[in-house]
Write a structure and sequence with these properties.
Helix content: 25-40%
Radius of gyration: 27 Å
Strand order of the largest sheet: 2-1-6-5-4-3
Shape: globular
Distance between the termini: 76 Å
């Protein structure tokens, strides 16, 4: 039995009439279904943890189209890798996971999204799973084709979704304690809004980035893992650099960009703090750190002591070598992924990051464009 037939059977057994409060928070609308069924247009999203909460962020339109073409190619998705975000992330299509290319970052879930519901405590929409979205789409197709609405479905989490008409679809959470008695959950409480298609939800979707890269900038951070007053990481701050640069292309060089006379500037972070503190130095510091004023001492060990490390003969050369080797690694990987790149390369350093570059100014590049380290102490 197909998923549509099984849900039809469930619908025939359930009460098709909505609860008295089903439309309480919605305006009355035209009930005319009108028209033929048109398949929903999918858009690809990825999940990111922001302030310990999941946030679903849309890929830009070009990346989403590229992912959809790979999905519709008819080939096995397992093992297929699609570069996104200007080549800084790879999406493993079969795994539905997104991996950073140039730096360490937790992999994030990727989803082909067609149906959405509004979250609990904010106005952002959350996509349903791909499998349940397909069930919703099949039920919607039958409702439009047969002009029979007030369809009721139950999600895998025993949540209730009711399709009253094409413009009014709601989502109810399961009633607490209903599972204990094995009873069918009923719709109660304030309903959530359900939307079909990304064009019906409020979300910013960017067009994408120019493929051509004219210049590469390495950004070396200063002391500590936090790079600004908002305690953001080097990756987040460099993302802002890149966004400002792309906005300047639109506001100041739009005509040149449309005529493909110029490309864009790529900014890549150089992280030396994590390799330094992974050498076991944190364990040694912990042994001699007093337990009082825990947060302040942790901040001092993780941030201010980087200055003393740099001024010590034991760790200074390690830090400088780490910066050079990290730039070599990123630059080699960048050329592999951008074999036609013929632009210039610059280094931007903030605070102690600039001091390390200045201290290692006798570093030079060889004929292959690699950064070599010479004795600076």
């Amino acid at each position: 039995m197909s998923s549509v037939e099984s849900h039809q059977e469930q619908l025939s057994q359930s009460d098709p009439s909505p609860s008295p409060n089903s439309c309480s928070s919605f305006e009355l609308i035209d009930m005319d279904a009108g028209g033929l069924y048109e398949p929903v247009s999918p858009h690809w999203f990825y999940c990111k943890i922001i302030d310990s909460k999941e946030a679903w962020i849309p890929f830009n339109s070009e990346d989403s189209q590229q992912l959809e073409e790979a999905y519709d190619s008819g080939k096995d998705c397992n093992g297929r890798v699609v570069p996104t975000d200007g080549g800084r992330y790879d999406v493993h299509l079969g795994e539905r996971m997104r991996y950073a290319v140039y730096w360490d970052e937790l992999a994030s879930e990727v989803r082909r999204c067609t149906w959405f519901y509004k979250g609990d405590k904010d106005n952002k929409y959350v996509p349903y799973s791909e499998s349940f979205s397909q069930v919703l789409e099949e039920t919607y197709m039958l409702a439009v084709t047969l002009d029979e609405w007030k369809k009721k479905l139950e999600s895998p989490n025993r949540e209730i979704i009711i399709l009253h008409n094409p413009k009014l679809m709601v989502h109810y959470q399961p009633v607490a304690g209903s599972d204990e008695w094995g009873s069918t959950p009923t719709e109660q409480g304030r309903p959530r809004t359900v939307k079909r298609g990304v064009e019906n939800i409020s979300v910013d979707i960017h067009c994408g980035e120019p493929l051509q890269i004219d210049h590469l900038v390495f950004v070396v951070h200063g002391i500590g893992p936090a790079c600004d007053l908002r305690f953001r990481s080097i990756v987040q701050c460099v993302n802002d650099f890149r966004s400002v640069s792309l906005n300047l292309l639109q506001t100041h060089f739009k005509k040149a960009q449309e005529n493909q006379q110029i490309g864009r500037v790529e900014f890549l972070p150089v992280n030396w703090h994590s390799p330094l503190h992974s050498t076991g130095v944190d364990v040694d510091l912990q042994r001699i750190t007093l337990p009082s004023i825990n947060r302040l001492r942790h901040f001092t060990n993780d941030t201010i002591l980087d200055v003393f490390f740099y001024n010590s003969p034991t760790y200074c050369q390690t830090i400088v070598d780490t910066v050079a080797s990290e730039m070599n690694r990123i630059y080699t990987l960048f050329l592999q992924r951008n074999p036609n790149f013929k632009g210039g390369v610059s280094i931007a350093g903030h605070s102690l990051g600039f001091s390390k570059y200045f201290h290692g100014s006798r570093r030079h590049t060889d004929t292959r464009g690699r950064f070599e380290e010479t004795s600076t102490l």
